[in-house]
Amino acid sequence: MKVLDHEPYAWFLLEHEGALYLDAHCSHSFFDYSVLIRLSAEECGQFETLGRDYIGRLAYDIHYSAPAALGSTSPFRSRNLTRELGDAVSAAVKDWREREALGSHTAFPRA
User: Fold this and answer.
1) How many domains does the chain have?
2) Is the pTM of this model over 0.90?
3) 3-state percent breakdown (helix, strand, coil) of the chain, nearest 5
4) Residue 54 lies in a domain
5) 95-111 pLDDT, tens digit each
6) Residues with Cβ < 8 Å from 4, sequence gap 6 or more?
7) H/E segment holding residue 40
8) Which of 32, 48, 63, 80 has a Cα at 20 to 30 A from 26?
C-alpha cells in the first residue's frame, strides 16, 4: 500500500497491488471517521480524465452520503474496506508522512 496523493483533512489516494483506493475523511458533528473504497473501473477512468478534481468530488460525495450514520443508504457503505485494509492504510500514511518530513515526498501529479 502506497500513498499517491492527498488533500489535507479530506482524502488520501492510495495504490495497492495495481488498484487505486480512496480513503475519504468524514466528519459529522463530533464523529469523525474514514471510508476506504477501491475505485471502480469507471471511477479510475474519471480520475484519468479529470484528475484530482474528480477525487475531491468523489470524497465529497462519500462524506455527504454519511455512510456510517445509523440507517444510512449511502452507496459507499457496502464498499467500505476500512476493516479489511485500514491497518495497511494507516501504515502507508505513517510512512508517507515520515518521508514528507524528510523532504522526500513526491505527490502523484494530476490535473
Assistant:
1) 1
2) no
3) 40, 25, 30
4) yes
5) 999 988 887 545 554 44
6) 13, 14, 15, 20, 107, 108
7) none
8) 48
